[in-house]
Amino acid sequence: YTPVGRSFFSAPEGYDHPLGGGREVWFGFHQSVRPAMWKMMLNIDVSATAFYKAQPVIQFMCEVLDIHNIDEQPRPLTDSHRVKFTKEIKGLKVEVTHCGTMRRKYRVCNVTRRPASHQTFPLQLENGQTVERTVAQYFREKYNLQLKYPHLPCLQVGQEQKHTYLPLEVCNIVAGQRCIKKLTDNQTSTMIKATARSAPDRQEEISRLIFLCTFFFPHSFQKKNIFFVWNSCFKLTLPLK
């Protein structure tokens, strides 16, 4: 589960509710302890929110910019497309795929104006000399990787003054990132349709979540002398102070 405030969400398994623009619906549950007559009750209800889909950044860009086939886009992004893409990916975490099993993670701080074939950075050689290298040249010389999309921009990650650039094609969106940006009207409509369910289905889902809680949460609560009790309803028993 991925915690968000008092709610817990899990990645989609066996279902798919894409919202478009690289976003999707995650389902989970919300919990809160409320006072009742002579006892404290644990209130559990289902919830849903938008997360960014874990996928290659190239595919994420295509969804954001509504590009159906990236191979049919041999030209660099227009300024308007680059600005739109930057607004969506800035602040997100990505992981690289060109270092084997070392999936290093970085946070995106910007998208370059120039493509990987023209974006340069200062590279310090072993002899101490500093030379200018394009991102495409560096990946070809360092990793023997010929970029498939050198005409696309790069992601600038980490701190801006360090000039760390990554080609889009070697990056994936890290899973479990909640979307805190405002949804579009179409995405909001899709979210409402995906979360609509009948009262019996909602009750059944809540019962399933309560059952799961008896496995995932008792150990942490027992350390605080709080216990779960299953009865005709789900009760949370607290010690008297």
Give me a quick take on this structure.
Pfam families: ArgoL1 (PF08699), PAZ (PF02170). By secondary structure, the chain is of the alpha+beta class.
What's the helix-strand series?
A: EEEEEHHEEEEHEEEHHHEE
- The CATH topology annotation of the largest domain reads as paz domain
- Write down the overall geometry: elongated
Number of domains: 2
State the distance separating the first and last CA atoms: 32 Å
CATH architecture title of the largest domain: Beta Complex
Please, what is the average pLDDT? 85
CATH class of the largest domain: Mainly Beta
Structural class: alpha+beta
* Secondary structure tally: strands: 14
Low-confidence parts? 220-238
Organism: Aquarana catesbeiana
GO molecular function: RNA binding
Keywords: Cytoplasm, RNA-binding, RNA-mediated gene silencing
Domain PAZ: 56-175
Structure keywords:
241 residues, alpha+beta, 2 domains, five-stranded antiparallel beta sheet, 14 strands, 26% helix, elongated, PAZ_dom, PAZ_dom_sf, ArgoL1, RNA binding
Task: Annotate the secondary structure layout.
Blueprint: E1 2-4, E2 7-10, E3 18-20, E4 23-36, E5 39-52, H1 57-65, H2 79-89, E6 93-96, E7 105-115, E8 120-124, E9 130-134, H3 135-143, E10 153-157, E11 165-167, E12 171-173, H4 185-195, H5 199-216, H6 218-222, E13 227-230, E14 234-237
Antiparallel strand pairs: 1-2, 2-4, 3-4, 4-5, 6-7, 6-12, 7-10, 8-9, 10-11, 13-14
Domain PAZ: 56-175
Protein name: PAZ domain-containing protein
Pfam family, one: PAZ
